[in-house]
Specification:
heterodimer, A: 323 residues, alpha/beta, globular, B: 419 residues, 5-stranded parallel beta sheet
Chain lengths: 323, 419
């Protein structure tokens, strides 16, 4: 076994190494061949190879010294308008030396940029097209303003299908000399749903136990990465104890640092599993959960949004008992 | 071991008393007049708000003029019977040893005025015939029970000294205590006390004792303490408002940070809107308020603040439809603020680790701390060898390793790392 984060160790280096998103990879290869890249938007769920594709494209285009020709900025960390004005501009306006006449700016998590910053970015993109091409990476392309979208070639990434997911993890397991049982593999896919970053992290954490990887170990890893019991919290709310349910929520968010989107996804799964909830109520609750999920994106505080959802569960539990 | 500074730094001479110079001069003139025989008014009635030096003025006066002070206060003369006991000492100007005598009846507000107990009546009898100077002190000389008594007295009103004078005194005390204090800090304490010198000194002691420096930051939390009182009123107005407008107005009453107010409301909603339907409505209002807060941040357009405020005040107030009134429910301090400030250090550390991960893993530091760190933690807890390599690869320092792995495991990791 070797020891670094496997997500990095096994991150494909060249477009040829990418096992998934075949059509996208083909189009990117044609950019390399013509030595011309348009502005791009890579959109899709986490762990599907957006950042990897951008880095592979750069390496294929510029060779191993590709670092000198690209800049990676993460909009979540530097989302203000000033960054666009200063950093991006400074990078964009200086011409690259070599046979490719432009540099590439990779803007990760671009959907987290403020709309003002996006407006500023739009002008920069236009002005320095000659010297710099932009690859915007986002979970939701809808959060990128229209004028930028219309200047970019869109690429839509999707979760890895099970066959490609399995193939990739098996290769890692073989290379690291660990025993990955089929049931373990199944469990990882069930839990991570084709999000490769999560899948590989889960695999590595499971491997740290030093045994062959069973479904049980996978679940225990997931349980510890997401330790709070979502089901317990949902039942507490349905039984009418809002304050206690909110305590559990706080524990998850503050003590264990579970992300709001993960919590709501699991609440959504749980609702359909709980026997005591009448069937028509499940779909009613799905509507509420969906609404709150949407507000999670718009709001500023995950705990507030999720406890509003818990309050709705308390209300639902009350209404169910009325009949 | 520490004496109260109000005692330790009590004025020793009349000149040291803060403020009220004119009235004090009148007091001195009146006492000195006794040397030439009994003056027209045998009694001085000093009144004014608490903590401004009424008693201490009389005490230092006696000291300055080398008089014997016979001091009585509230507990000594609740009733007619108790007051009559002092008739004797008032009948002679000088003591057995030839010292002149000054009588002080302090804290007169506590005396009963009703006929059956008759404390005031008995006192009035004494002051009509007293043969030595007698001083009365009360907060309010115009209480109806003093109506008759007032006719026999020279009324002297003590006023609150200006904040500048109080600050000057605080500065003097700091100098004596060897404390270097920022001017702003002292001014803040003085102003806040509203002229009550005693409480200003008490505050100063509470804040500065044992320190060598007192800064503005050290004292500004006092403002917070004041505001907390205030916030309960605002919360009550919001939770029990019957119209949108009155809920909205509650906020204008005081200078509260909207985000802070939001936390207070968010914490207390479930205790004040207990019916499930009301609770869901109120929490939905807070959810919408939070959405507007998100919009304010992402657009940096402050005009949305008004909608944020609408939902968190009127939205919550209008949620109340079915909850039955249940008597008095106390307000809780926002737990989130407590835990946030407690875990501030660990959150900072988490973010620093997130930055380390970001450098290697092409992910934002926020998402790194949420999505990658949990797995790293499992690895660190289970597998020292793997942990060592990852720690080296990420360039984590000892503090970070301890945070991730816990004390014990961290020791093993660090030992290997250094080997």
């Amino acid at each position: 076994m070797s020891f670094e984060m496997w997500t990095e160790k096994y991150r494909p280096k060249r477009l040829d190494e990418m096992v998934n998103q075949k059509e996208i990879v083909e189009r990117l290869k044609s950019f390399v061949k013509s030595r011309n890249v348009p502005h791009c938007i890579f959109a899709g769920p986490p762990g599907t190879g957006k950042t990897t594709a951008a880095l592979c494209l750069a390496r294929d285009l510029y060779g191993d010294a590709y670092r000198e020709h690209i800049m990676e900025l993460n909009a979540s960390d530097e989302r203000g308008i000033d960054v666009v004005r200063e950093t991006v501009k400074t990078f964009a306006r200086v011409r690259s030396i070599g046979d490719v006449p432009f540099k590439i700016m990779i803007l990760d998590e671009a959907d987290n940029m403020t709309s003002d910053a996006q407006q500023a970015l739009r002008r920069t993109m236009e002005r320095y097209t000659e010297t710099c091409r932009f690859i915007l990476i986002a979970n939701y392309s809808g959060k990128i303003i229209e004028p930028i979208q219309s200047r970019c070639a869109p690429f839509r990434f999707t979760y890895l299908p099970k066959t490609e997911h399995d193939e990739f993890l098996r290769r890692i397991a073989k290379n690291e000399g660990i025993t990955l049982l089929d049931e373990g593999l199944e469990a990882i896919f069930e839990v991570c749903g084709g999000d490769m970053r999560r899948a590989i992290n889960t695999l590595q954490a499971a491997a740290s136990f030093g045994k062959s990887i069973t479904a049980e170990i996978v679940y225990s890893v997931v349980g510890r990465a997401h330790p709070a019991d979502i089901q317990q919290m949902v039942l507490t709310a349905l039984n009418g104890d809002f304050i206690k349910a909110r305590e559990k929520l706080r524990e998850m968010i503050q003590k264990y640092g579970v992300a709001g989107t993960d919590i709501i996804r699991q609440i959504h799964t749980e609702i359909f599993r709980i026997n005591t909830v009448p069937e028509p109520w499940k779909i009613k609750l799905a509507d509420t959960i969906g609404e709150i999920d949407f507000r999670l994106v718009q709001g500023s505080n995950e705990e507030v949004q999720l406890s509003a959802l818990l309050a709705r569960l308390v209300e639902a539990g009350y209404e169910m008992k009325q009949k | 071991m520490h004496t109260a500074w109000t005692i330790k730094h009590k004025p020793q001479t009349l000149a040291e008393v803060v403020g009220n110079k004119d009235v004090i001069q009148k007091l001195v003139t009146w006492v000195k007049a006794w040397d030439k025989g009994i003056p027209k008014k045998r009694v001085v009635f000093i009144y004014g708000p608490p903590g401004i030096g009424k008693t201490v003025a009389v005490e230092t006066l006696a000291k300055d003029l080398d008089m014997e002070l016979a001091e009585k206060n509230a507990s000594d003369y609740r009733t007619e019977e108790a007051v009559k006991k002092f008739a004797g000492i008032a009948s002679q100007y000088a003591t057995l040893f030839g010292k002149k005598r000054l009588i002080l009846f302090d804290e007169l507000d506590g005396i009963t005025g009703t006929q059956d107990r008759g404390g005031v009546k008995a006192l009035t009898e004494i002051i009509k015939v007293t043969r030595c100077p007698l001083v009365l002190i009360a907060n309010n000389a115009y209480d109806p029970k003093f109506t008759t008594l007032r006719n026999y007295c020279l009324l002297l009103q003590f006023k609150k000294p200006p904040a500048g004078e109080v600050a000057k005194l605080l500065r003097k005390i700091c100098a004596r205590e060897g404390i270097e204090a920022e001017e702003d800090a002292l001014k803040f304490i003085a102003q806040r006390s509203g002229g009550d010198v005693r409480s200003a000194i008490n505050d100063l002691q509470a804040l500065a004792q044992g320190k060598t420096r007192l800064t503005y930051e050290d004292v500004s939390w006092l403002a917070y303490r004041d505001r907390q009182e205030n916030i309960f009123t605002i919360l009550r107005m919001i939770f029990y408002a019957r119209s949108c407008i009155s809920a909205k107005q509650a906020v204008d009453m005081a200078d509260v940070d909207p985000d802070m107010l939001f936390e207070w409301i968010y914490e207390n909603v479930p205790r004040h809107l207990t019916h499930p339907r009301d609770l869901a409505r109120a929490m939905n209002a807070l959810s919408l308020a939070d959405v507007y807060r998100g919009r304010i941040r992402s657009t940096r357009n402050w005009k949305f603040t008004r909608y944020f405020m609408d939902f968190m005040t009127a939205g919550v107030a209008m949620a109340r439809r079915e909850t039955k009134p249940s008597g008095w429910t106390p307000f809780r301090f926002p737990k989130r603020i407590q835990t946030l400030s407690r875990s501030k250090a660990s959150r900072r550390l988490e973010l620093e680790i997130g930055r380390k991960i970001r450098r290697k893993c092409h992910i934002s530091s926020y998402r790194a701390s949420k999505e990658v760190l949990p797995y790293i933690r499992i690895i660190f807890e289970n597998n020292v060898d793997m942990a060592v390599e990852i720690a080296r690869w990420l360039d984590l320092n000892a503090g970070m390793i301890k945070y991730i792995a816990g004390e014990e495991q961290a020791e093993a990791i660090i030992r290997l790392l250094e080997a």
